[in-house]
Amino acid sequence: MKKLYEEFCTSFPGTEQSKPLAPLTTLQIGGPADLYYKLTDIEELAPLLAEAKNLNIPVFVLGGGSNTVFHDDGFRGLIIHVKANKISIEGETIVADAGALLSQVLQAAIKNGLSGMENMMGLPGTVGGAVRGNAGAFGTETKDILQKALIFNEEKGVHEVAPDYLNFSYRTSTVKRNKGRDIVLRAWFKLKKGDTKAAMKEAAPVLAKRLKKQPAGKTSGSFFKNPSSELAAGYLLDQAGCKGLQLGQAQVSPQHANWIMNLGGATQKDILRLAAMMRDRVKAKFEIELEPEVQFVAATGMIPPSEVLGLN
Question: How far apart (Å, rounded) are the C-alpha atoms in residues 109 and 92?
């Protein structure tokens, strides 16, 4: 494998070896990746993937890292970290590369007098992650403002898709269901003209409300999906007595029952076992099976969601 890695690094001199992954995620868990490439130009993605495929090197594409938990042994392959973050304005549309932070897109909207995504203020993560997981808050979801997206897959290469292709539903999309076969490169968000001062005034209480609810520290944010729009996972977990539960250095926040915290030195196994304990408590009390929002990555590739909590 070493020879293949050397060949890849020759083709892409910007590649780093033995790159620590923990600092790249909000939970700060994970060992080193054999290979790491910081993608700042979306046009480089196709040749990167082609070379990795040619050399039979496993690949994982990383966005903002707010919903990713790496294995403690790291990743035996190539991590492509999407950091392309160009943002431009086309009339009432914002065009943003997948690596742009949602907070940056919202700032650009307000600066240019565009409204429609104020409720998303304070959401972590990137544009690519938002499209992939249909991110949203306080009644506004990515599907409500997305005009189109530029994606890559092996069959069609780089091409644009309409919202219909993405088949959005609660916290998921075609991209997420395809488990790595589709990769978001850019998104167009259709907004509307509005008063900048009014937009900022509207956004301020949304952010204040979100920050008040959010515990500080190393966390992935909301861990489980809400079972429905009327029933919050946080409520179920709270009623099941999950606040403050701790396993190793992983703890359910005493402030929010749907947030798992890394107290320092938590492992992927700690998180998995604690999450399974939380799920089991809710199932026992309410006969409801909670589904994680967070994706777990083994040393050799992504763990299917259906298998995640079976690893405890």
Answer: 9
